[in-house]
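Structure in, sequence out. Go:
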């Protein structure tokens, strides 16, 4: 309940592990971790520390000298929770909680807390619960009682003792099965809605990007919708869809999606696949980047990696939207605008001031090549490849069974017509 909330004094640690070949740039990683912690309303970030680490220690993650040094730091600052920006094993967590007399939350745990705080739709809530249970199941090795959570939330706590572990694990597995069934029903409903949209047939334009890149602000500018657009990580957790009429009179469906993030925990990639599947149905993707961010290139690479892992088709055009140019010094901004104007499918914009938004709409209209035509196609039952392609493209207006196969009426672009002819 709201009146039970109080802020928890929190310290953020980023272990910069030298032996990790995939390690991120340390300072931006620490700042992102602080922003993650600040995204929860009941955490007060008191301080932050970058901890260089040759390699993780199995028992406590850090060496004994560093553990003692941090213990003093946390005691002096009356810290109740330490957020460690990275994976922490159950054994490391139990030992550090005992040594420091604080609650430990690792990166996965914190992201799950944020997701539980933000999820708005039935689907989002179910996905978070499943991800949280999967995470909790791996951590039943410990029993921790010395610091009760102030907020009703997910509560990443094992059973009261080792003897409870098997019973707890069984209960979690049963709950996961129940949630999975509920989620399948919700996803089936969304699939029906998507099939209905495919018959309209409006093209779908999906906004993707690293979290906090400004997708929701751009979405609001283009649609006039009032989607929550705050300067915090993971402000949007559920896809929001609106129809937009482009300058050439063509209607499109604009879809805002959850922000991507580096090292997204595997439980969450799986759990949020349905949230991101609007991207798979997209005819055009707007990759929104915070071009003023120091790690903008690394963030863009993370987004591309996640899109590849989702199976986004290489045939789908991606427009790079360089957002937040209003945050740049004048010289840098001018240089970026010049570069973007020379690059295909790249637009420099400011969602806050509105600069570049007209050009973005024009580019969307051009990219969709919306001189659609209606065609009638007779496809035999045996031609599974072409049939599958037509369904995947979402361009079927009507279909009728004939003696030899199916007669499809499709509404397609010249590009799709060409692709079909090459199958």
């Amino acid at each position: 309940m709201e009146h039970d909330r109080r802020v928890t004094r929190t310290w953020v640690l980023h272990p910069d592990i030298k032996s990790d070949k995939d390690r991120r740039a340390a300072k931006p990683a620490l700042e992102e971790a602080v922003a993650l912690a600040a995204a929860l309303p009941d955490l007060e970030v008191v301080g932050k520390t970058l901890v260089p680490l040759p390699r993780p220690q199995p028992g406590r993650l850090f060496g004994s000298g560093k553990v003692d040094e941090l213990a003093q730091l946390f005691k002096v600052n009356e810290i109740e929770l330490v957020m460690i920006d990275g994976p922490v094993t159950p054994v490391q967590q139990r030992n550090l909680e005992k040594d420091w007399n604080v609650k430990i939350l690792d990166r996965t745990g914190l992201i799950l807390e944020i997701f539980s705080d933000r999820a708005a739709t039935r689907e989002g809530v179910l996905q978070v619960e499943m991800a949280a249970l999967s995470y909790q199941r791996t951590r039943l090795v410990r029993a921790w009682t010395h610091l009760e959570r102030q907020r009703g939330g997910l509560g990443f706590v094992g059973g009261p003792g080792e003897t409870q572990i098997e019973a707890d694990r069984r209960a979690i597995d049963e709950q996961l099965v129940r949630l999975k069934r509920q989620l399948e029903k919700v996803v089936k409903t969304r699939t029906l809605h998507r099939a209905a949209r495919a018959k309209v047939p409006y093209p779908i334009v999906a906004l993707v990007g690293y979290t906090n890149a400004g997708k929701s602000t751009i979405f609001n500018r283009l649609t006039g919708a009032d989607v929550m657009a705050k300067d915090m990580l993971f402000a949007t957790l559920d896809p929001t869809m609106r129809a937009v009429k482009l300058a050439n009179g063509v209607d499109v469906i604009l879809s805002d999606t959850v922000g991507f993030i580096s090292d997204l925990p595997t439980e969450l990639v799986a759990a949020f696949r349905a949230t991101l599947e609007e991207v798979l149905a997209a005819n055009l993707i707007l990759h929104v980047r915070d071009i003023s961010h120091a790690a903008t290139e690394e963030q863009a690479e993370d987004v591309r990696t996640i899109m590849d892992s989702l199976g986004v088709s290489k045939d789908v055009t991606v427009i790079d939207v360089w957002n937040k140019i209003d945050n740049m010094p004048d010289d840098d901004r001018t240089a970026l605008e010049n570069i973007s104007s020379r690059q295909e499918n790249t637009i420099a914009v400011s969602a806050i001031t509105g600069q570049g938004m007209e050009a973005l709409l024009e580019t969307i209209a051009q990219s969709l090549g919306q001189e659609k035509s209606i065609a009638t196609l007779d496809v035999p039952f045996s031609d599974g490849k072409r049939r599958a392609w037509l369904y995947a493209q979402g361009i079927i207006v009507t279909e009728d069974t004939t003696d030899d196969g199916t007669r499809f009426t499709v509404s397609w672009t010249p590009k799709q017509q060409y692709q079909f002819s090459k199958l």
